[in-house]
Amino acid sequence: MTLALDAAAQDLLFREARTANTFTDEPVSDEQIQAIYDLVKYAPTAMNQQPLRITLVRSPEARERLVNLMSDGNKAKTAAAPLVAILAQDNEFHHELPTLFPHFPQAKDVVFAERPAREASAAMNATLQAAYFIIGVRAAGLAAGPMLGYDAAGINKEFFADGDHSVVTVINIGKPGEDAWYPRSPRLAYDEVVTTV
Amino acid sequence: MTLALDAAAQDLLFREARTANTFTDEPVSDEQIQAIYDLVKYAPTAMNQQPLRITLVRSPEARERLVNLMSDGNKAKTAAAPLVAILAQDNEFHHELPTLFPHFPQAKDVVFAERPAREASAAMNATLQAAYFIIGVRAAGLAAGPMLGYDAAGINKEFFADGDHSVVTVINIGKPGEDAWYPRSPRLAYDEVVTTV
User: Fold this and answer.
1) How far is B108 from chain A (nearest CA, A)?
2) Is B183 on the interface with A (CB under 8 A)?
3) Residue A2 forms contact with B (CB below 8 Å)
4) Nearest Cα to B144, choosing from B169, B119, B115, B117?
5) pLDDT digits over A159-190, tens only?
6) Residue A15 and residue B39: Cβ atoms within 8 Å?
7) Does the reported pTM lie above 0.95?
8) With contact defined as beta carbons under 8 Å apart, do B56 and A194 qualify?
9) Which of A11, A143, B21, B99 meets the CB 3.0–4.6 Å disulfide criterion with A20?
10) Contact A35 B146 (CB under 8 A)
11) Do B140 and A100 touch (CB under 8 A)?
């Protein structure tokens, strides 16, 4: 037993979990999203900056606006999923930094004074958090269907009027439905990925 | 019970796991890294592209070259950790794509013909995989100490002579040692992160 994590958890999070393209009608509650967030919020980001922001697209009107901005292959499943979440980075995350990272209160003004530095850092760290969130969705016994095919500028304009947020991924969430996935595609072998120096 | 993942696994991966700054002398074996990789390799990337590459820095000579490229605050812990891994993105990942994503064999030449498109996609997807890897280190009962403070251009040149890899993060790995971490810094509350439209 090389891993400390129990086998059922390994299956739930990694081995049996799959990216879903269809879902049942079973709704996903705010309580479930809160439980996911309250678990994955502990995973690390650089200087604890936590730039991820999550928009739950629940109203039919907002769902329609989002579907119109998805690429053609993603429209039908985004329209049909029980819940759709827009994961975005807050490019003004530095305002919270003196509270979030009290070890280095000057970081806000020294490291992140310029917007390009903030955007680069927010992109990386919100992407880490998006991965943690996908694992969290699986921890809730749900399937995630993360997508990158959309009009990003359109989503940023339509859903983040402040001009300070950039979409990282859009994720369909729910219980997997009929024919929810293709056969699993191959993974690279250990020796193709890991080298020792 | 809102989550399907058992409480012990929640603690192991998220609630009790911490970013470690000191480690015991207990070595980290190749078998442990292989078990981690063989678990987290199943987590999703866009078009299954899997651009993450991992370099285990085991020889004293390589460790010294790496330590010299870390920022001052990271030198001592990088020198002392039982194992240090350089996580990098392969900017030429598209060569594997027809095998990895047989649903869309043209992607290699249509979507990823140009290096900037490959670098952007590799950055995002290798970052997702870096997050999965951190979770995997914790799944092995180990602590991860991911770092971003280093001379990135120097690491790319020193460790990836082909010019085709870019460092994503450097991670110290081992059993946490004495005073391994600060008190946990605050996390944003659900209502600060999640909005509904």
Assistant:
1) 16
2) no
3) yes
4) B169
5) 999 999 999 999 999 999 999 998 999 999 99
6) yes
7) yes
8) yes
9) A143
10) no
11) no
Q: Which residues of A touch B195 (CB under 8 A)?
A: 53-56
Residues of A in Cβ contact (< 8 Å) with B40: 14
C-alpha distances in angstroms, B103 versus A50, A73, A182, B69, B100?
Answer: 35, 13, 9, 41, 9
Name every chain B residue with its beta carbon within 8 A of the beta carbon of A9. 5-6, 9, 139
Alpha helices in A48-151, H assignment, sequence order: 60-69, 72-80, 97-100, 107-110, 115-139
Q: Which two tokens stand for residue B178?
A: 């004495």
Q: What is the total residue count of chain B?
A: 197
CB B178 within 8 A of CB B22: yes
Longest dimension (CA), chain B: 55
Model confidence pLDDT, tens digit, residues A148-167: 999 999 999 999 999 999 99
End-to-end CA, chain B: 27
Q: E strands, chain B, where?
A: 52-57, 83-90, 143-147, 165-174, 194-196
- A195 touching chain B per CB within 8 A: yes
Inter-chain CB proximity A131 and B9 less than 8 Å: no
Q: Does A83 touch chain B (CB under 8 A)?
A: no
Residues B142, B149: Cα–Cα separation, whole Å: 22
Residue A159 is which amino acid? Answer: F
